[in-house]
Every structure is written in C-alpha cells, then in structure tokens.
Amino acid sequence: xxxxxxxxxxxxxxxxxxxxxxxxxxxxxxxxxxxxxxxxxxxxxxxxxxxxxxxxxxxxxxxxxxxxxxxxxxxxxxxxxxxxxxxxxxxxxxxxxxxxxxxxxxxxxxxxxxxxxxxxxxxxxxxxxxxxxxxxxxxxxxxxxxxxxxxxxxxxxxxxxxxxxxxxxxxxxxxxxxxxxxxxxxxxx
Length: 189
Ligand SMILES: Nc1ncnc2c1ncn2[C@@H]1O[C@H](COP(=O)(O)OP(=O)(O)OP(=O)(O)O)[C@@H](O)[C@H]1O
Ligand SMILES: [Mg+2]
Fold this sequence. Notes:
alpha+beta; serine/threonine-protein kinase; six-stranded antiparallel beta sheet; 28% helix; protein serine/threonine kinase activity; binds magnesium ion; 5 helices
C-alpha cells in the first residue's frame, strides 16, 4: 500500500500518516480553504458500485451519531474506488499508546474511562447501532483528555472484503441489537 502523505483527498491535503490498522490508513489532513485539521481514514478496500451505496448509507448513519465521547464523522468520499472518511482529529492519541500492554492503570482513571465509553455505547445502543470493535486502539483522547470512541460501524463497511473485528474486545458489544439506517440525527449530548 502506497502512503498518501502529500496527496489531496476531497478538500483535504494529507500531511502525514497518523497510524495504520488492519484495514485502513489514517492521516492528519488540513482543509485546503479553512486550514482546519481532521483525521482522514483511507480504507484499503476497493469498492464495487454496489458497495459504494452501502458505504454511503453506513457513513450517513454514523455521521448522525453525535455525542461528547464519540469521534464525529464529518465527511466521506470515494476516490476512484477507494473510500475514505473525514473525522475529528483526536490530538491525544489512543488509550493503547498511553497505556502500553502490560502496564497497570490506577483505579480512578479506569473508572473514568469506563464511564465515558459506557455513555458513548449507551447512546449508540439507544439508536440500535453496535460498535463491533471496542478496544483501547479505538479509544482516542481529545484536547481536554476526554475519551472519544471511534470506528462505529466501520466494520460493516469493510467486512465484505478483508476486515474482521477484533474478537477479544468486540464480542460483548456485538450481542446487542442491529443497527439503524434511519439517517436521523442521534444526538445524545
Ligand atoms: N480520529 C483520529 N484522530 C487521531 N488519530 C487517529 C484517529 N483515528 C485513528 N487514529 C490513529 O490511527 C491509528 C490507526 O487507526 P485504525 O482505526 O485504522 O486502526 P486500529 O483501530 O488501530 O486497528 P483496526 O482498525 O485494524 O482494528 C490509530 O491507532 C490511531 O493512532
Ligand atoms: Mg480504529
């Protein structure tokens, strides 16, 4: 996979690679006209014309999920056959990076993380939207060190090709109902 730093996607110039997962690369992007920053998630998968409609519907659903502890999806697009999502940039990195595997975390921050993530999941479940990949790599930290859960529903988009959600963390969340496709705002603020 060729790295896309320096390229333009939609209204964003990709400045550098923030990280890479099993099915996407995530870049810091700068808006060409506004100068604002965002995280641009470029999926490895190539969409067929049928997939594009599913991706559009999925992106529409998660873009309506507005909550203080959920990463906001701002925009989506398809460049050639490559889908990408524009999300809020979480400058604090991931909880996994802050707490590498094997380190002990004091109780107080654990309780705080759990409360924030549970609140985000409750909002999504109220909208019949399941996450499918709850794990520290998908818990980001915002400017005020708040936890922001990312990657809602993305699993469903990429699933058709190569992506499987991470079993260790994904299982419990997955037993809840099915997702909504209503496209209605799901603000739980
Ligand atoms: N909104 C964001 N703001 C800042 N950094 C981000 C954002 N989203 C993702 N990242 C960074 O990009 C990395 C890759 O993210 P991605 O979601 O593609 O993979 P993952 O969640 O680590 O693993 P996988 O999706 O394969 O299970 C993350 O670990 C994180 O460091
Ligand atoms: Mg992720």
